[in-house]
Amino acid sequence: DDLLQLVRSLSSERPNLKRFLIAHSMGGLVATGAASLAPELFDGLVLCGPWLDLDDETKRQRPFLFPLLRIVNRILPKLVISPGIPAENICSDPRIVAQYLDDPLNCADTGVRARLLVSVVDYQDKLRSDKYVKISMPLLVMHGTADKLTN
């Protein structure tokens, strides 16, 4: 909703500008939802490594893991359930990994909390439901074949 509100506001200020939504990783999930809910606001969508689904290992564990995770989320939503993303999975270029680790705004050492994972999975499921319209605008999706983080 925040993204759509921002785009509507900017669109009223500059109605003649083309609006392309460009997103990466988890932002790809948010952008896909926004483009699906309000396609009239966008002229195109560009996704780079979008996190639209769980990795295969997590999917195999889903029938057991997610009912339990939903209970944990209700009781302890801020509980860290994963130590975070291994830095070497961020990029195959060691220079980029070093920059990632040196970034003072990087909060990778805080881990993944129950609330975040439940929210992401719920939104991924929503996007696959009939509630969301299919995207029918120019679309470019770029995804590395060796990406260990997103599907």
From TrEMBL:
Domain Serine aminopeptidase S33 residues, every copy: 1-150
Pfam family, one: Hydrolase_4
Domain of life: Eukaryota
Listed name of the protein: Serine aminopeptidase S33 domain-containing protein
Native species: Lotharella globosa
